Input
Amino acid sequence: MRPLANANPESLADAVERLERGGGRAAAIGGGSDLLGMIKDDLASPDVLVSLRALAASDGLDAIVPGPAELRVGGLVTLARLSAHPEVASRYRVLAEAAGSAATPQIRNVATLAGNLCQRPWCWYFRQNFPCYKHGGNRCFSRTGENQFNAIFGGAPSYIVHPSDAAPALVALDARFRLVGPGGERVVPAGAFFTLPRVDVTRENVLEPNEILADVTVPAAPGLRSTYAKVLDREAWTHAVVSVALALQLEDDRVRRAGVVLGGVAPVPWRVAAVEDLLAGRAVTESLAAEAGRLAVDGARPLPKNRYKVPLVENLVRRTLLSLAGSGQDPRQELAP
Ligand SMILES: Cc1cc2nc3c(=O)[nH]c(=O)nc-3n(C[C@H](O)[C@H](O)[C@H](O)COP(=O)(O)OP(=O)(O)OC[C@H]3O[C@@H](n4cnc5c(N)ncnc54)[C@H](O)[C@@H]3O)c2cc1C
Output
């Protein structure tokens, strides 16, 4: 491994300044569970690591602050703390479940929420350093190669899937992300933070150079019932083959507002607005859930080896809806591909 300098900033502003001073050769680091592996595998080569954990307590970056109007979660909060927080678990279950489903207990103890949202793709070809679009090349090897785990929506020209479990949950909850950079700060909706490869194939989000994801705010939603269901290709501790984040605001058993976002199927958390519209104003029944499942996969363009994802998503959406509405079975059972 190459020698690296470590910088311990004293404030968020100081961290931004140190990133800027690095002139493109400095990287922000949270828990390091992704970035250090990337460096070891020669997939990233910063000279300076700006350790955000050094300033966790300052700027409220490691705080979880539930309030009547919103929940604020600092970017440095670990996935383990987020998933175990009683108020997050009771009021925003989808977020607690998503955070608690990611990776392994050891990784969740160090992995930060911001790092989870900003982690790089886990496409086999990218991680093996193939000269793909993400590495500045001019092709996506998964398109015709081993594409079992790649995108069925929004893929071209790169068919990665977004790896974060927390991301679909936050998009379903209409969260907002606060980004702090050299030009000051800005707030972007979670759904607008992630970008498709057709917009810029080299990156997965709208973070500008030297910008830091400081915290996440989730609006309160009366009558919210939510859950995260994830299908794995083995028993535990890996990325989603497919997942769904569901957030339903219910009023007298009718859906007032629905957030329906898929994971493991696209280069971004994949919001299915058509399903959200279908559910609005209606009570969840077997037939409505079946229709929602079918609509969730409308327009899917599977690759030769990942066609199985289409029925998997359809059934996961149907079962999770029924389960959340209180009339169905546990959506996580009997769904392995
Ligand atoms: C075996 C294994 C299984 C895994 N399974 C899953 C899974 O099932 N689900 C899942 O979601 N993830 C999974 N992961 C990924 C894991 O969750 C991430 O490695 C972790 O969440 C990253 O958080 P971190 O704080 O360690 O990030 P780091 O490694 O510190 O950083 C990751 C990236 O984010 C950037 N970054 C970090 N913090 C900030 C910030 N505040 N602002 C801007 N940029 C920032 C870094 O520069 C870097 O590019 C798995 C990883 C492994 C090794």
Observations:
- The pocket of flavin-adenine dinucleotide is lined by residues 27-35, 52, 75, 102-103, 107, 110-112, 114-116, 118-119, 163-165, 207, 212-213, 237-239 (CB under 6 Å).
- The longest strand covers residues 242-251.
- The mean pLDDT is 94.
